[in-house]
Amino acid sequence: MGFLMILITSVLWSFSGVLIKAVDNNVNAYVLSFSTYVFAVLFLGAYQLIKNKNLKVNFEDPWIWIAAIGKTAGYVFMNLATYLGYAYGVILISPIQTIIMLLISKFYFKERISTKSWGAAVLCMLGIFIIGWNGAPLKDILDIGSIMLLLLYFLSGVGESIHVISEKVLIERMDSISINYSIFMICMLLTCPFPYIFGIDTKLLDFRTIVAMFFLGTIITGLGFYLYTEAMKKISFILAVIEIKMSSLFTLLWAWLFLKEPVTVYIVLGAVLFIVGIILLNLFHEEKAK
Asked: Quick one: DSSP state of residue 53?
């Protein structure tokens, strides 16, 4: 059952970039972030009421706040980057997140990192470089727009790393739906000023935009993170990582199929390299744990 949950989550998350690009002409990235959390909270709240007959939200645990702040930052920066770039660009967040978590393990948790693990991290970085390069001339790589785009993905990776580390702590003492409901409730509160600060033109909220926002919030964010947290309890972490990283390949497929984005051989090669790097990194980590 855990494998099926991860597979469903992987496919759901792979549609994020396509749906974000589908609304980028109608709502700004900040309003999209807020609406996503609104729909996620409504979905998870309804699920809690049906399953537990009550709403459980935790505002006391500091790790809930740390996770929410990280998730908010990660999602807002991802939306901004996707608005500026291509839908497939979201695949960069995963290897960046992996490298950041490796550095956190080394310098914060004082874990000893093996040479093989550093080698796997180099594969991840090589994959990121090839995707960022994409066969372009050097002057295009050093363009301020390209650098800004990579910086946004880097900041998103930092936020997502904080979110993942916090959830690992929380999953030991809370149930999955309470964790995600509490985190997304705080995310919603943190982003609720966005529509007032950055503005929203209701005339542009057509049916397609509303449906895309609904799916991003309820299915991809609400259901996706609930299934992922549940699956982490049922299967080993390494197997979950291997399967969830396959979403990058689905993301490339949807970007090419639905948006006709130029998914070149460089993009595919870079994606394969960082997926292999992430898998090896987690394999070596589990090997060391034994």
From this structure: S
If one counts the domains in the chain, the total is 1
By mean pLDDT, which of 59-63, 196-200, 230-234, 275-279 is the weakest? 230-234
Tell me which residue of 38, 73, 62 sits closest to 192, measured CA to CA: 38
Average the pLDDT over each of 12-21, 40-49, 69-78, 136-145 and give the range with the smallest value: 136-145
Q: Which helix (H) or strand (E) holds 213?
A: helix 207-215
Is there a domain that residue 132 lies in? no
Q: Which of 92, 1, 13 is nearest to 250 (CA)?
A: 13
| Domain around 218 | 1-108+145-237
Nearest-angstrom CA–CA distance, 282 and 81: 27
Q: What gap in Å lies between CA 260 and CA 70, rounded to an integer? A: 32
* Amino acid in position 260: K
Do the domain assignments include residue 130? no
Q: Is the distance from CB of 56 to CB of 257 less than 8 angstroms? A: no
**Residue 40 domain flag:** yes
- Domain assignment present for residue 261? The answer is no
Instruction: Render pLDDT for 247-284 as a digit per residue (tens, 0 to 9).
Output: 888 999 999 999 999 999 999 999 999 888 888 877 77
User: Each residue of 100-128: pLDDT tens digit?
Assistant: 878 877 777 677 778 888 888 889 889 98
